[in-house]
Amino acid sequence: MSDKREQFSSKFGFLLAAVGSAVGLGNFWGFPTQAASNGGGAFVLAYLVLAFLLAYPALMAELVIGRYARANVVTALEGVGQTVFSRRLGKAVGIYGVLTASLILSFYAIVSGWMIAHFGQPLAQVLSLHSVSHWLGQDGLLRNLLVALIFMGLTIWIVARGVQAGIEAWSTRLMPLLLAILLGLIIYVLLQPGAMAGLHTYLVPDFDQLTDPALLLSAMGQAFFSLSLGVGTLLIYGSYLSKKESLPRLGVAVTLLDVGIAFTAGLLIIPAMYVAQHHGVMIYGDDGSLIAGPRLIFQVLPSLFGSMGVAGVGLSLAFFALMTIAALTSSISMLEAPVSVIIERTRMQRSRAALVVGTAIFAISVLIVSNMNPLFDFIVSLTTKYSQPILGLALCVYAGWVMHRNQVLKELQTGHLGVEHSLFWKVWPFYVRFICPALILLTVGQSLRG
Ligand code: PHE
Q1: Residue 329 C-alpha to ligand 1 middle, in angstroms?
Q2: Long-range pairs, 319-323, Cβ under 8 A, ≥24
């Protein structure tokens, strides 16, 4: 490894980058609708508990391994192994992780491209470029390829600039902007007729709905995706963190901010849906549940904006800028996972590695865009439903069983004096060894059966 390995310049740089990775499309379209259709405030509470009991320990496993090894996920997992078997397995898990990160990016770039298209559409309209605006609003192959290419180009450009000048600098610029747009939109939407009914559905707890174990398990899957777990992104960000900082505290901050922003996103999305309903837009699907996912983002909300005249144009620009920003700070972390492996294991230059890996991933995006029907859903479930939890399990096993307890404790003590007397150290080692692996196995088993 080179001795001038880059680092984040401060803990805030790390925090904004890690929260930027965590806060993405998952927060804006996964969480709010799941909450609204599954018991409202009760689901929000359950999610908070799950995030802390399960996702946080797994996140800590990644941070500890990353900062201890000061290396990319492949080298790190290979390095902590003490036997030939655990070293080889570690290497294989690392490769599986970066392949998963790359596949997630290949479909994420497509969806993020749609965000760019929906941002460009009202923009072109404001600039009186009516035919461009019309073209951007139409779901066509060429449009989808072009906007995904623009998104991937931005991602490659930021990652090519490096940890401080690229990832940290852009996360520090974009994340405050994201928060400002989000809060502005919430205030506006909550003042519209219909919004209060949405707030009611979102927040009033219905604990009866929480007894379904399948629901809790799907909330866990959502938490894993939302916290970017398992694919080596938090591991690599942890490896760029100074030894002066406390890992348990920063881990709590990342978890709280991710959950907090998911919750806040719900204050925008669900009331907006009810405002849309007030404007005559259908917000329930055929099965009687709230419309979620792509139809929510690309049909329900645009019909709302479309019915609001000039204000709608402004809202639509702000909303799709928000989504694009959220996606971009996540996609750079996905690309950094494989790029860091290439740079540290082959000595290829960063800018070149970013271009080569980014182009290869874009080639997969092209394949998916051209065969949307079988490929898109297949890759989404393969990566997020199965690979992410399995990888999370492997990382817990490496932090809990493969690394020595003393190595782990020493790494945690750096930057957090007295951690051995904290509640964290009383609970976490047990959690990461037994509880997390058992619960993850349960979820995966469940989704295999389903
Ligand atoms: N956490 C991101 C989101 O919520 C997705 C992500 C998954 C990012 C895996 C990095 C790695 O959209």
Answers
A1: 9
A2: 319/185, 320/115, 320/116, 320/118, 320/119, 320/122, 321/119, 321/181, 322/28, 322/178, 322/181, 322/182, 322/185, 323/25, 323/28, 323/112, 323/115, 323/119, 323/297
